[in-house]
Write a structure and sequence with these properties.
alpha+beta, Enolase-like, domain 1, 3 domains, 5-stranded antiparallel sheet, globular
Length: 285
């Protein structure tokens, strides 16, 4: 099929893009990589009245460490994350799992995050690492914690006249590790189940910070706060990680489908959470 008719604006600045988006309201979409948006338009699951292309805006492809954060600009591609030596932990682990090479070469990290697909990988990584989303609108810039940015299925916290300009991922200053484990039916597929884990260790090896998030087993990417609370203040151990896996499985709400039963997916959550946390602890150690 062909998409419905739409207006096209090639923005040359962030202010121009924001103005164009605000003029069109909720029926306007930002075009960066387009790897999710354009296929949806072709089958008319998405019918925007206007596309605002931001690929010509300078400075949005920034990927750098500054002020204790990894800054990921709105035009940073998945492939840039794979190739970068600035990534770490769960971020580094997840990057090669994003779809296939064709999508990684064109798709953007910020676009994927904004899409809020519960089967998408990046939002789980950001939830585990405690990242922030930076949005710009007519009133200026605001920094939104990723837990507040992900509202629901394909729903984010942006206002109609705002766009995402970058993501800020905290860079741990001490001993830390992370992992992203993903089960997929074939290379490049969406996750059947995936788990992101992040651990930071303090003096004596005690866990001082923990992040655990799930992909594809809830209406949106899910931060497992009960498991995180159970981990902090404890020494890493197989029993502790098994307990966290049980809490993660209990928090999940998978469905029976062609990929497997809900109970089987919960078992994968248990196993992946335990393994991801063990990998994170080993890296931190």
């Amino acid at each position: 099929m062909f998409p419905s008719r739409f207006d096209y604006v090639a923005a040359t600045s962030v202010d121009e893009a924001i103005a164009a988006k605000g003029d069109g309201g909720d029926e306007t979409r930002i075009l960066a990589g387009g790897q999710s948006l354009l296929p949806m338009m072709k089958i008319r699951l998405a019918n925007p009245s206007k596309l605002v292309d931001i690929n010509g805006i300078p400075g949005l492809d920034v990927l750098e460490r500054v002020n204790g954060h990894l800054r990921v600009g709105a035009l940073v591609r998945h492939a840039d994350m794979v190739a970068s030596d600035l990534t770490f932990g769960a971020v580094e682990s997840a990057a090669p799992w994003i779809s296939d090479p064709l999508v990684r070469n064109r798709g953007t990290v910020c676009g994927s995050v904004s899409h809020c697909d519960p089967e998408g990988d990046w939002n789980s990584v950001l939830l585990a690492t405690g990242a922030d989303v930076v949005a710009r609108g007519p009133s200026g810039e605001r920094v939104i914690p990723i837990g507040d940015f992900v509202v629901d299925l394909f729903t984010n916290a942006l206002n109609e006249d705002e766009m995402v300009t970058e993501i800020r991922i905290p860079v741990p200053s001490g001993r830390s590790g992370g992992a992203y484990l993903k089960l997929e039916r074939k290379v490049g597929d969406y996750a059947t189940v995936a788990v992101a884990a992040h651990l930071e260790l303090g003096g004596g090896g005690v866990i001082t910070k923990a992040g655990l998030a799930l992909t594809s087993v809830a209406p949106h990417n899910l931060k497992v706060t009960d498991a995180e609370a159970a981990l902090v203040g404890e020494m890493p151990s197989e029993a502790l990680f098994a307990e966290a896996g049980e809490l993660a499985a209990a928090a999940s709400s998978p469905r029976d489908d062609v990929r497997g039963t809900a109970e089987w997916k919960r078992q994968v959550v248990r196993t992946f959470a335990r393994r991801a946390l063990a990998t994170a602890a080993a890296s931190a150690g």
